[in-house]
Amino acid sequence: MAISEKYLEDVFKSLDIILSERQLSQFITYYKLLIEWNEKINLTAITEYEDVCVKHFLDSGSIVKLFSSYKEASDFFKDKTMIDVGTGAGFPGICLKILFPDLKLTLMDSLDKRIKFLNEVIKELSLEKIETVHARVEEFAKKSEFREQFDFATARAVASLPVLSEYCLPFVKLGGEFIAYKSEKADEEVSLSQNAFSVLGGKLKKNVSFVLPGTDYKRAIIVIEKEKSTPSGYPRKAGTPVKKPL
User: Fold this and answer.
1) Taking burial as the number of CB atoms within 10 A of a residue's CB, which of 23, 119, 180, 201 is the most buried?
2) DSSP classification of residue 190
3) How does pLDDT run across 160-169, given as a tens digit for each residue?
4) CATH number of the domain at 5-243, out of 3.60.9.10, 3.40.50.450, 3.40.50.150, 3.20.20.370?
């Protein structure tokens, strides 16, 4: 279908989010850049406008399911710091920045080409209080200026929850939260992650399951609270968290 502001508006209304003209314009510019750059570098297999609106934009925005309203979520994230670990093409990070302009965001990815794309998006969308970092999580999480410095870490990656926890919890300050986007097997993943949470200093706070509005996609958002400092040996060296999950 052709690019339609009304379609995008209606998609977000299904989460009780009313987008401003600026937000609508930002999402549409983001979509155009995504498709343009996707011809040069592999950013997403999902390219149809309607599919991107639902499977990327709406799915990223579904974090509001943790709150009673979009306004409550906006107030909650105001001036908080978040790192999006393995952000890829900017999901959920860029979408969250559009929805919550006062969120202070760091986008981290290991592929320099994706970082160049994200920098272009940031420039074209005139986003502020946002930075990109080209790094591998195993090294970056050991740096004192980033370790346990963020209110939130998030990830919408395909790795299992024990692996994502090892990548993300080291960035989260005490009392902060790791927010993971997962599919319908979330309950199973949570039960397999109890040891990882314990070792890394986290504790399950919320596990909110839902069907993405207007679809039959089962989704879950899992919130892990940081109770204790993560031991200095984590994350382990590259490849180990995947081969030997906690």
Assistant:
1) 180
2) H
3) 999 999 999 9
4) 3.40.50.150
